[in-house]
Amino acid sequence: MNLFDLSGRTAVVIGGSSSLGGAMAEALAAYGAAVALTGRKADNAEPIRQRIESAGGKARCYAVEPTSKADLEHLLQEVAAWTGGVDILLNCPGVNSATSFFDIGEEEWDRIIDVNAKSLMLSCQVFGRYMVERGQGGSIINLSSVSSTTPLSKVFTYSVSKAAVNNMTQFLAREFAPARVRVNAIIPGFFPAEQNRTILSEERVSSIMSHTPMKRFGDPTELQGAVVYLASEKASSYVTGSLLRVDGGFGAMTI
């Protein structure tokens, strides 16, 4: 028995054009899932689609504004027409900023909360309702952050938005469980990406390393095992409401 076979499954990756979302999308495709990649512009996800198809996988790119419910509903219709249904939803859009608390403006607050939390709520409404009403189960995987549980300097709004991701994950896990729709989150440690390069000063990197037992950053490929595990009903059929850390031991560190 292959616990990780995703053949015949379809995964929608919100934020599939990002470095972390793209790496996880490639893993889902490598284990047999057809993958719908989204970005604000379809072309943003094109390099990932090409890598997936070069490796023998199946993928399409879609332009989606993740904070628009109408866009997400249209995406569901398009993907269902392409493959016949949606079995896996991976939510990984994200924006960040390095602003001290007293300098946070309302526009910055609204932008980060909208992208990191509102978009997840909307996608879970659209795709979660579809999975629940279809009655064939499903897996929703949300991308959180170590800052969701441990206060980190300079990223107040981002941390609040990711704490909301954890809360929504566990709330929806309870709500959707009777329909066999599992809802889990991955808590990544520090993976250098475009959204966080501006806050990775030399001093901050030194502080991160001193609080990470493995003494290094993560590589996006190191999230692939976690996402395939949570996507596979065979491998994780009794796992819901879980916040799975992939953080090099950051969450286990005290002094």
Automatic annotation (TrEMBL):
Keyword Oxidoreductase: yes
SUPFAM superfamilies, per database record: NAD(P)-binding Rossmann-fold domains
GO MF term list: oxidoreductase activity, acting on the CH-OH group of donors, NAD or NADP as acceptor
InterPro entries: NAD(P)-bd_dom_sf, Sc_DH/Rdtase_CS, SDR_fam
Pfam entry (one): adh_short_C2
Domain of life: Bacteria
GO annotation, biological process: bile acid metabolic process
Keywords, comma-separated and alphabetical: Oxidoreductase
Keyword Cell wall biogenesis/degradation assigned: no
Entries under PANTHER family matching the protein: 3-OXOACYL-[ACYL-CARRIER-PROTEIN] REDUCTASE FABG, SHORT-CHAIN DEHYDROGENASES/REDUCTASES FAMILY MEMBER
UniProt family annotation: Belongs to the short-chain dehydrogenases/reductases (SDR) family.
Protein name, UniProt field: D-mannonate oxidoreductase
